[in-house]
Every structure is written in C-alpha cells, then in structure tokens.
Amino acid sequence: MTDLLTRLTEMLDDLDADVDETIDLADEIAASGDAALLPRLQEELERALAERNAYARELLGGVLAAVGGPETLPALIRASAVDLGDDQDGLAAEIVELVQADPKTAGRVLRPLTEDEDLTVANRAEWALRFLP
C-alpha cells in the first residue's frame, strides 16, 4: 500500500497527471483501510498545506478520513483552518460525515480544539461540533 501512496503523492505533484486516475488511486487507498498509512498520510497532508496545494489537501484529507475515521478530526480541522483560497467543500463534507458517524468520538477529540490558541482552529472545531446529532 505504501507504494500506492508514493504513487498518489507523485500524481498530486504532477500538474499533468490524469485527474480521474488520481482520484481512483486515492479511492483505492481509502478503501484499503490500512491504518499503517496514517502517519504518512498526515505527513503528506501537512506537506500539501506547506506547499499551499488545495487539491492535494482535499484528496489526502478524504483518504485520511476514510482510513483513520473520527480520530483524524484534529488533523482535518487543522488542515481546514489553513486558507488556501478554495471552497473546501470536500474537506468540510468529510468532517461532517465523521462527526455524524461517531458523535461520541467526535465530541471527545473536537472539544479540546475549541480551546486552541489558533482562533481559526478553535472556530473550525466549534463549527464541526454543530453537526453533532
């Protein structure tokens, strides 16, 4: 699976990579449920943020959410707090789905973020908590 993740990151860095093929590969990795990929997925998400790559943030955020479930909400909230000039529709949908799928875990991992010193992170956590059933 690591080789697939390497291939995905290469495709996300390649402006000429086929979009459909990239999305299909992201979906394949997400469907694997391979928790061993979580540290690398988080690293790649952080790299996407540092490089201001909204497309990579969106795809990697979705894969991270699918593989790691609601425990990944802090990483997703922090990623969504970075303004890259995009609408973040996909990332927002991933966050909402995780919150609603497991409200107990979501509440546990999100509430501490509402006290984050980064007000954008705190506000995004507050926003996400509104979707608790």
Features:
single chain; 133 residues; mainly alpha
Task: Walk me through this protein's architecture.
With 133 residues, the chain is mainly α. It is 71% helix and 0% strand. Helix 1 packs antiparallel against helix 2 and helix 3 packs antiparallel against helix 4. The mean pLDDT is 95.
Can you give me a brief rundown of this structure?
With 133 residues, the protein is mainly α.
List the helices and strands and how they pair.
Elements: H1 2-13, H2 19-32, H3 38-50, H4 54-68, H5 73-80, H6 89-101, H7 103-110, H8 119-129
Helix pairs in contact: 1-2, 2-4, 3-4, 4-6, 5-6, 5-8, 6-7
Rg, please? 14 Å
What is the count of DSSP helices, taking H or I runs of 4+ residues? Answer: 8
Question: In this structure, how is the largest beta sheet organized?
Answer: none
Percent of residues in beta strands: under 5%
Overall 3D form = globular
Tally of strands = 0
> What's the SSE pattern?
HHHHHHHH
End-to-end span in angstroms? 35 Å
Mean pLDDT: 95
Helix amount: over 70%
Q: What are the segments in which pLDDT stays under 50 over at least 5 consecutive residues?
A: none
Structural class: mainly alpha
